[in-house]
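To the structural biology subgroup,

Please find below the input and predicted structure for Major facilitator superfamily (MFS) profile domain-containing protein, which we are adding to the shared reference set this quarter. The sequence is reproduced verbatim from the submission form. If anyone notices a discrepancy with their own records, reply to this email rather than editing the shared folder directly, so we keep one authoritative version.
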Amino acid sequence: MSVRSELYSLRTSLAVLYFVSELTIFRTIAFPIFASLLGFSDLLIGEIVAVYNVSAILLYYPSSLFSERLGARTSITVSMLLFFLSNFLLAIGKTPLEFSLSFALLGATQSFLIQRGSLIAANTTKPEETTFVYSFATSTGFIGRMLASLCFSFFYFSRSLVDYRIGFFALGVASFAPLPLMLKVKDTKKPVKYSFTPSKLNMVYSSVSFLVGFGQGITITLLQLYFVEKGFNLFEVSLLYAASGAIGFFASRFAKRYGKSPMIPYLVLSVFYAFSAALLSQGLYLTLIFYLLFSFSRFARQVLGQTLLLEVLKAIGEVEKGLGTQAIMGDIGDSLGTVSQGYLFDLGEFSLSYIFGGLAILSGSLLNYYFYGKFIKGAKSQTPK
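Predicted structure (tokenized):
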């Protein structure tokens, strides 16, 4: 398979973008400790972090309309500027209001950042090209994730607020790195017909992200609690994040080889993903083994799943709106899963929770498989030879 030379420019610019985006894991791990050093209660810290999800959910769809009008490249530029402002405010902030505004800006960053998928869709014509770009960009992002996780492992021993502030500021400065490269990427085309509302088909398809988000909201949240219950401290948890980044790198590169025919590999990986999620509470050592399998299948499946999703959205003709609705439903599902895991835990502790999470993930994956088969494979079979 010969890949068009323009794809190399696209994947390089997106790789830098993904790398910088994944550095945010440093902030995710560091902020609770930073805020506790300032004397904030656990409840207040949770409320501040929750602002991120609320902001992102409210802005996902408006950002998709913005991207349709002005192009995905403009949306990504806006996201990087918001990312800098968010981290700068976190670096200089002292009050709950300042930190809440910082997380609101981070949510806005994420809402515009999802349109990087529109750039991939606009610059690719075949599933293997989509996988080629997405695999490389995602695997590079995991390098950023590993770097940020390892950086935090050093901060774990620091009790200096200044060190944390410098880290947040450096994260903000890094946001400008992708901007020069993004100017060279072909922007998305403006739609011929413009509407404010997504199609019914688009909304039905967004249930894929809802189901997978619900399952992940249960499993990933409980997984963190499980490791803490087993005596892992935050330093060791940060090393687990770094390990998951390494697994994600190899999983993303592995997925690239199946870009031309992603359906069956995606389905197989989805089964392994759900199966390993359902077995994450089998004792610490077995959990670590299943965690490796869970992480590998999760991230490899994520690359192929994104390929399926972008190809279906291109067939529907609503890429920007589709990415917006998928993100909204994914976050809503994740939030409901996070809430539900408490009730499921009361009924059957970790085992029952992971089983429900695995079933939700598998259901969403099967639905994605069905849509891709209907719109992509079905369309090819009807094409005159």
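Summary notes: The CA atoms of residues 33 and 39 lie 10 Å apart. The radius of gyration is 20 Å.

Regards,
Lab coordination
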